[in-house]
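A further point concerns the way the authors explain their paired sequence and structure data. An entry of this sort, consisting of the sequence and the corresponding C-alpha cells, reads as follows:
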Amino acid sequence: MSTQKAITYVSDIILGRTGSIIDRKYQRNMIREYAQNNNIEIVAWFEDEIYSEDLIMRPGIQQLLGYEEKYDLLLVERVWALSRQLPQLEPFFKEMDRKSVSLKCSTTMWDCVSQQCRRRFDSSLFKPDVSQIKKEFECVQEKETESVTIKKPSQLFFLNLIKDPLKS
C-alpha cells in the first residue's frame, strides 16, 4: 500500500448549544493518530484560530488553497472544522475537485453534512462492484428453485409478545 500525502486543516469548533470548543490541539492529535494508522504522510498543516462560516475568506483556507506542492487529500478531524453547512462547503469542494484532492475525516460523524461529505469523497462507499453483483445474480439464476406453499396457521399466538421478560 503506497503512502498518501495529505495536508491538514484545523480550526477551533464551537458547539452551538453548549458553547464548548473542540480545540485545535485535540484535532491535531486525532489527525496525527489517524495518519499513523492509515499510512498517510502529513506534508503541511493549516489552521485558523477563529471559526467563521465564510470558509473561503479564512486566512488558513487561503493559505491552503495557495499550497502548490503535490498532495492526495485534505485531512480534517471532522468536516465541522470547515463548516456545518453544505452550501458553504460546495465552492471549497469544487476547488478540491479541480485539484483532484479528496477529503478525509479522522473522526466519523453521523450528522447530515458529515455523511454527505463522506458520500461525496469516498467512492468506494456507494459504488458497488457491478461485476461481482452480476456473478452472484447469474449464480442464483442457474440454481433450480422449488416453490413451497406455507400453510396459514389456524390461530395466531400473541401472548408471548405481551409478557414482561423481566417478570419471567
